[in-house]
Structures are given as C-alpha cells and as structure tokens.
Fold:
Amino acid sequence: MKVSSQPDQASAIPVSSTWTVITLDWDVESIMQRLHIRSDDQTNARFAWKAPDSQTSQGEEFIALGRQQALKATGERRFQDLAHAERILQTSTHFIDLRANRQQAVPFIVGGAAFHHFNIDPAWSAFGSSQFILPHLLLGTDSTGKGYIRFVLPSQEARSWLDHLHPIESRSSQSFLQDRLNDVIDSEGAASDVVDTQSYPISDIETLGHRLNNAASQTKEIWISRFQRAIDAIQQSPLKKVVLARQASVHGVTVGERAQLQQSLHQRYRNCIHFCVEPTSDSGFFGATPERLLRLQGRNLHIDALAGSRSRGKTTLEDQVLAQDLLHAEKDAMEHDIVKRQILEVLNPFSKQFRYPASPLLKTLPNVQHLHTPIEAELEQSTSVFELIEQLHPTPAVGGYPKRDALGVIEQIEPQNRGWYAGIVGWVSEQGDADMAVSIRSASHMKDKLTVYAGCGLVEGSIPEQEWEETYVKLAPFIEAAQDVAHA
Structure:
C-alpha cells in the first residue's frame, strides 16, 4: 500500500496499480440528501451507513455507489479468505489523500456477511455468504463532521485526472471535480434531484402496518413449540444458551414504502447504527441495530456485549420498574454473562488489557431496553479485522454458547435460512480501521417481498410464552414504522 499526499504528476501512480483511490475534502450535505434514498433508475450496488458516536456529537455517515471490485467468500474459511483477498486488493491499489486532516479513517471496502458460513438460499444470491465491495464513489462525513468524497478509478484513468488537480484549491480543479462527481453519479444511475418518497407509487399504503402486524402475530403456537425444543436441548446437553430467530413476511411492498420505512427508522432510532445494503436494484437489506460487533481504531478495540431485555414502560414509573427488574433478574444476568465471558475468552489471545464496567449498564431504545457491557481492549499487535470477526462471529448474543452446539440446534429447529440477519455489516479502511455492526433489528426487501426478523436468547429457565413476546417487541420498530408510512 502506498499513500501519496499530493498529485504532482501522473507518474506518481505505480505502473503495477490496478486501482487509484483519490480522497478530498468536500461539502457533501446537499449531495447526501439527494442520494439518501435509492433512485428508481439506480441499477448498480449501493451501501448506506450512519453510526452515532458516544465520544462526539457527530458520528459517521456515508453512502457508497457502484462496484469496482467484489471480494466474496463462503465456507468455514470465509473470513480468512476475505482477509487474504483484502491484502491482495491493498497491494494493487494506490491511495492519494488530499484532505486537510488525514487522521480520520475513510471506508475502503464496504459490505458484510450472512449469519451462516455456508451457501444461503436463492433469495439471498445477490448477497452471498459474505461480500465486501470496492465502490466507485463514496461520499460522507467523518466523526468530526467534516465532509469528503472518495473516487475509486482504474489507475490508467486516474493518471489523466492528476493534471487537473494541481493546485487542488484552484477554481479549475474544483470545477473539474464537480463535473467528474456528477459524471460518476449519473453513470451509477443515482438520483439527480432530491428524492421525494411521496412521489413513489405506493401499493395499499393504508394497510401496510396492519398486514405486517398480522404477519408478525401468526404461527405463535408453532414457534412456542420450537422455543420449548431449544430449552429441552439446553436441559439435556452442555448447551448453555441458544438464540432462535423468527421472521414475518408481506408481499406487494414497493420501493417507496421501503424508503419511507427507512426514513421512519432514522427518526425513531437515532442512537442505533443504520445500514442499507443493496447489491442490485431489486434486493435490499436494511435496519437500525443497537449492537456493534466491533470498532477497530489502530490497536484500540471496542465491542458491545448486549443480551437480556425488557420492553419499555408506558409511563415513567412502569419504565423504571421494568429496568430494575431487568438489572436484577437472575435469568437475564446469566444470559448476559455468557455473552460477555465468551467475548473475553475469544479476545484473550489478542489482548491482555481489558476495560469494562463491573456490572452491566442499561441501553435504552424507544421500544426495548437491554443489558449492555461495553468492552475496550488494547490489542498486543496489529490484527486484521477479519481475523477478529472470525473468532467473534456469531457471538452468543445471536447464536448461543458453546458456539458449535448452538449452531447445530439452530440448523435443526429454524425452518428458514437467516440470510444476512444476525450476520455482520460494516466497513474497513485502508489503514485497517473498521466498524462492524451485528445486523439485527433488520429487514430484507427482495423484489416486492418485505421480511422482518427478530430473535431471542434462550437459557435454562426461559419461559417460551415470554420469549415469544420478546420477539414481538423486537419486531415493533418495523410495525411502528409501517404505521408511520400509513399516516404519511
């Protein structure tokens, strides 16, 4: 990997480079508004991300358009294969960073992976078991609120750009970049004007919330029997915890309805990580997840242990009572401790320095509250994010413990493949920094079929009826967002 500070001449790009990445400071606010929702004309890949930051008021947000190259892998070695593919991509890429502050990491590849390592069902074929892409264009704001644009170009094409970028502050350079930015956005079929979701054709808009609620309410007896089977397996084996997921689907959902669902989620769940992965024009996966798998900055690692939950109360007093019940419940404490201990065990070969609160904290969302232990670690040496993911995923929060036993029970009991639900989604920078979320509180939209997902952690002492209600609470964000769509 080579990083340049300024484009003095075309020969600065090594002949061996396949790709050249040019990053510049840019006012992206108006463009981000235009690209926030997918255009009807957009046919290529799109990836959107917005993550709050507890340390700053800004957080990070970006939109990636197009696919210059895709890194795909499947099977038990998929994260090792992704790490190898990323290293090869790095060696064939030349980076030119013209920002004033180059300390802020910018995404290099974006994507994610399914819950299971094996090939998943045809509905998820555009996603695959794991896929990270090198986008054509990336626009965003870093954690300081500073805007940037990043072009990914074939190196031969980039050579012809460099003569136009010196000096970078000149009017001619800025005009050249604006023209090229418009060209790339047009070439990716992205929106040329601010998208008004009200103008989308909406099918049966008044009943979307009602239909989704009905779908989520069905098959209760079947699922309670499956929960009981999982609890029986825990009582009869060394299995300590297993997480079962269920899904509810409705057909006839338009792109416009999905766009409005996403906007409602943004408004309702501001302290969650929002993501949207769209490998093709008729396949999408989006959500508002409260759980970060990891945030890697140099050798500093942050991980969320999130397990144990209660609904929110209708009054302040009821809310406080539910919170205290959660903080002192033995069953939830055991479920949470399993997640925390497994994360620490996995990280032990990478770090001997950990920081986390002695007792779980509360993470409150509009519809649910969780036991939350933020874990900080100092890695002993630089480590690929994919090596960490291989060890961490799936955590007991979405899979179970011990991992292999829990996955066996999940495969036996769950009737449908999870796809990317409870998998990972996020980005990696050229320096190796990364942000990865656990893709829960999520939904897929394949052609006109919207599917929402929810899961619950089962341990000895879990009551199936209560677990069913917990999954229903976790589906509430999408039911409420669908009701917002109807009111719109």
